[in-house]
Amino acid sequence: MKDDNFLRANNAKHMWHPMGHPGEAIEHAPTIIETAVGSTIKDIDGHEAIDAVGGLWCVNLGYSNDVVKDAIAKQLYDLPYYSAFSGTSNPSAIEASYAVREFFAEDGMARVFFTSGGSDSVETCLRLARQYHRIKGEPNRTKFLSLKKGYHGTHFGGASVNGNNRFRINYEPLLPGCFHMPSPYAYRNPFNETDSAVLAQNIAAAMEDEIMFQGAGSIAAFIMEPIQGAGGVIVPNKTFMPLMREICDRHGILMIADEVITGFGRTGAWSGSRHWGVKPDMMCCAKGITSGYFPVGAALMSDAVAEVFENGGAEAAIFHGYTYSAHPVGAAAVTACLSETIRLDTKANAAARGAQLFDGCVALMEKYDIVGDVRGGHGLMTGVEIVSDAAAKTPMDMPTMKKIHQATYDAGVMVRLGGNNILMSPPLVITKDEVDRVLVALDAGLSAI
Question: Are residues 437 and 408 in contact, defined by beta-carbon separation less than 8 angstroms?
Fold first, then answer.
């Protein structure tokens, strides 16, 4: 490994980073994380911090799970790679598919299509949704409905159903036939409605109106996150997802649950959909499926969807896939990670520590006028919205947000910025004392301005 002086001298000079301006990375060099243990990361200057981001919503088991690491190492020696394209398979992939199917059986999922990550999983579900209707003799069902503030990855399909213009504007025109409903965001919405139950009804009415306008026979699927993550940790009313499910059923529209963030215990349940008592037709998974130890995602299908494909004619052949679909090393990580996730019952700790984090952030909202809203309360997903004028709900400017971020890191906690939101999604194995330290550091970050 190169020494620290080399790393500092070359940081951001040769590599473009995701989700940022290349020039800014050169002017303000990124923090270089060198090691990690448990829920703590350490940079090359020796500064330690609780990772309240969980890598990127993904390091559910923390950084020290040897069971997963050992499974990866063993598989590298046994079979480092083989294709899973039609005609070949590998033991690791077969075991992983069984484990994933069992994990989500309560959600009605029956088949697994492995991908390389969340964006791939979304893309897979969108493509297979169109193919599903084509097999059924409805080839005109090509359009997609989604929610504003939703995040569904960065492929052209995912960006097209994304509900945040930061991920869209510079890449337009995107996929045609994608239409966005208002977000169940009680703090800000076009109806000026603060009652989340009434807001859910308003969005349902807007969706019915859009379906009538587009023609139900032209719509393939509706995609949503059970809890919107990157959009600011937006928790819908408990009636919202069931309302969407009923509308989809009535109009023959597939429901895709994007569980890339919310799956595997993040919300205090094994899937976000279970909070709302909904069984989707398809699910997109990634992140917690390997705790970030290996890039793997999965698209899951219900029995009803699987039956259409498996009993279909020539049009049911799936000409879609990735070089690393069902990668044996990734599959070994999946099986080990799910076993550890269940053994540690991470959803229970996520629920307990999530309530602690949420309550602590509510206390900070009472202390600081700049905290306009706190969202979460379902597992370890918490969003703190920062405003410069509480009455007008004016979003805080980005330079100030970056000062809060840096001051919080200096105080020993890494958080993530999403516009004027502070987003926290720490490892699901985080301890009570570590959550207390997160709250102390966030207090320091807010007091710094």
Answer: no
Q: Which two tokens stand for residue 347?
A: 């959803």
Residue 138: domain span: 68-344
pLDDT of residue 1: 61
Report whether 340 contacts 65 (CB < 8 A).
yes
The rounded radius of gyration (Å) of the Cα atoms in the chain is 22
299 and 162 belong to one structural domain: yes
- Region 400-412 average pLDDT: 98
Residues 277 and 232 reside in one and the same domain: yes
Q: What is the rounded CA–CA span in Å between residue 318 and residue 283?
A: 17
* Total residues found in the chain within this entry: 449
Helix, strand, coil tally for the chain in percent (to 5)? 45, 15, 40
| pLDDT given for residue 129 in this prediction | 98
CATH classification of the domain holding 118:
3.40.640.10
String of DSSP letters for 404-420: HHHHHHHTTEE-EEETT
Is 42 a domain residue?
yes
* Single pTM value for the model: 0.97
383 is written with which tokens?
């969003």
**Pairing state between β 371-375 and 297-302:** unpaired
The predicted-structure confidence for 96-114, as pLDDT tens digits, reads as follows: 999 999 999 999 999 999 9
Q: 43 - beta bridge partners?
A: 33
Can you name the residues that pair with 299 across neighbouring β-strands? 113, 284
Dist CA 56 CA 293 (whole Å): 12
Domain-located, residue 221: yes
- Give the number of domains in the chain: 2
Instruction: State which H helix or E strand residue 445 sits in.
Output: helix 432-447
pLDDT, one tens digit per residue, over 218-263 is 999 999 999 999 999 999 999 999 999 999 999 999 999 999 999 9
DSSP states of 234-270? BPPPTTHHHHHHHHHHHHT-EEEEE-TTTTTTTTSSS
Continuous segment of H or E residues that includes residue 334: helix 328-344
Q: 307, 328, 344 — which closes off a domain?
A: 344
Alpha-carbon distance of 157 to 174, in angstroms, equals 8
CB atoms within 10 A of CB 8: 12
Q: What does the longest C-alpha to C-alpha distance in the chain come to?
A: 64
Q: Give the residue carrying structure tokens 């409905």.
A: 145
